[in-house]
């Protein structure tokens, strides 16, 4: 008898008012490839074949509030993006349409908001930064 295959996370999906616009932002930020492009759904894949990142149009999307406040749309998930040059990565993200969040909880992490308002963290990887930190 064979063992059942272990479940594998194949992708993460983000809702946005315009799936193609948000997918374009992350495609340019990460340098990933478009694997599927439908009117309300776009899927990006990394060059190494890891977990995909997809975007679906949700006309009623409400951006989360960062940091969270009582009664506000709460952040339920965010992306962690490891970078070698934190200042350079922030500059690139801002040039592509992100904004820098007003609240920054750590010196080696920058919380940005993508064009649809989802928070994502750019964090300094490598030996000088130590272990990954989470917001």
UniProtKB/TrEMBL annotation:
Domain VOC: 8-129
Chain spans, region Disordered: 52-71
Superkingdom in the source lineage: Bacteria
Stretches assigned to coiled coil: none
InterPro entries per record: Glyas_Bleomycin-R_OHBP_Dase, Glyoxalase_6, VOC_core
Signal peptide limits: none
SUPFAM superfamilies: Glyoxalase/Bleomycin resistance protein/Dihydroxybiphenyl dioxygenase
PANTHER family registered for this protein in UniProt: CONSERVED PROTEIN, HYPOTHETICAL FUSION PROTEIN
Protein name per Swiss-Prot or TrEMBL: VOC domain-containing protein
Organism: Streptomyces wuyuanensis
């Amino acid at each position: 008898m064979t063992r059942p295959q272990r479940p594998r996370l194949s992708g993460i999906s983000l809702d946005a008012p315009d799936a193609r616009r948000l997918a374009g932002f992350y495609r340019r930020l990460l340098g990933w490839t478009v694997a599927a492009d439908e009117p309300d759904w776009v899927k990006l894949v990394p060059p190494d074949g890891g977990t995909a990142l997809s975007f679906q149009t949700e006309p009623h999307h409400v951006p989360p509030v960062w940091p969270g406040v009582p009664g506000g749309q709460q952040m339920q998930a965010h992306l962690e993006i490891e970078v070698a040059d934190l200042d350079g990565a922030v500059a690139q993200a801002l040039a592509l349409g992100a904004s820098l969040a007003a609240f920054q909880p750590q010196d080696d992490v920058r919380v940005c908001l993508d064009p649809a308002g989802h928070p994502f963290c750019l964090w300094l990887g490598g030996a000088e930064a130590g272990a990954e930190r989470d917001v």
